[in-house]
Amino acid sequence: MSKTQMGGPTSDRDCFREDNCLMTDSLCSEAIALMKHTADEGIVMMKMKQTFNYCQNMIHDPVKSSDIFLDFPRFLDIGGLIEQDFTLMFDEATSVKFLEKWPTIYKQKVLKQSRSLTQSDDLQYLVQNAECTIEVENGWDSDMSSILILVHLLPPSPHGRKRPGKLSARQACDHLVKFVKTGTSIQGHLDGITESLQPYLLAVGTQRNVIHKYFIVIDKHAVPCKSPGSLACFNELFKAHFVFGTSYDHDLVNMYNFLQTTIYEIDVDTTQVNPRVAELRARMLR
């Protein structure tokens, strides 16, 4: 299946069309130079919107994509740019679906479905935290716990012949969010990355349920999340895959495909999902 026929974050999409979108490379270059040096966040947001097509073309160019944070370094110090680009890529209605539907509908459905799973200690701790029944020491907050329960409902698939075996759901959760204590050097964390990893959340706080700041780590860069809340930050993480044209982590692809097709309702007909994802979708949409 060709790239354009397969749904998901790496698909090429129609360019954003708006009257004030800059159409020439020279105008985009001027805007990029201005963004690098202005302290006015409002101007940065406006110029990022005007150069959205240029940025997306760069991201989907195999030669230029590795320089995206050199040309657009404001991703690294201004929160909200991922949200803006995702909304330009789709629309406001799609952008708000997760934060509208997860707390009101899907969080309880995920908890209900989790009762049919083998109750490992890890899963029990997550359920207790998600339900706020017993506070597990150094456990994640209620919202993050509910997301991690979804990883248990849709655990990693086997890697295939070339990479035998598969990760446990607990190990896969570590691919989604990592915790570091307040005062830890973020640059030190980035410098310590020894393998190529797909985007993940870096949670900085005094303990897992007291997080002061989230970052999205992508290509050894830390992109600050706009919101302090775990659910909004996870929402940004999901959207970052589309904004930066990055494929899902192999061990989280089932979870991401479920969210993409069930809640965000993106590329529902063109995304291949495994039977377990399709089965959970069917149960949740009843």
Strand numbers in spatial order across the main sheet: 1-2-3-4
User: Can you count the beta strands?
Assistant: 4
Mean pLDDT: 91
As a percent range, the share of helical residues equals 40-55%
Kindly, what is the distance between the CA atoms of the first and last residues, rounded to a whole number of angstroms?
30 Å
**CA-based gyration radius:** 19 Å
Strand content: 5-15%
Which class of secondary structure composition applies to the elements? alpha+beta
Count of the separate structural domains: 2
Q: Given the C-alpha coordinates, what overall shape results?
A: globular
SSE series = HHHHHHHHHHEHEEEHHH
What kind of sheet is the major sheet? 4 strands, mixed
Count of runs of 4 or more consecutive helical residues: 14
Low-pLDDT segments, ≥5 res: 1-5
Describe the structure.
The chain has 14 helices and 4 strands. By secondary structure, the chain is α+β, with helices and mostly antiparallel strands. It has 2 domains: 64 residues, no CATH class; 193 residues, no CATH class. A hairpin with a 2-residue loop joins strand 2 and strand 3. 48% of the residues lie in helices and 9% in strands. Helix 13 packs parallel to helix 14. The longest helix has 18 residues. The protein is globular.
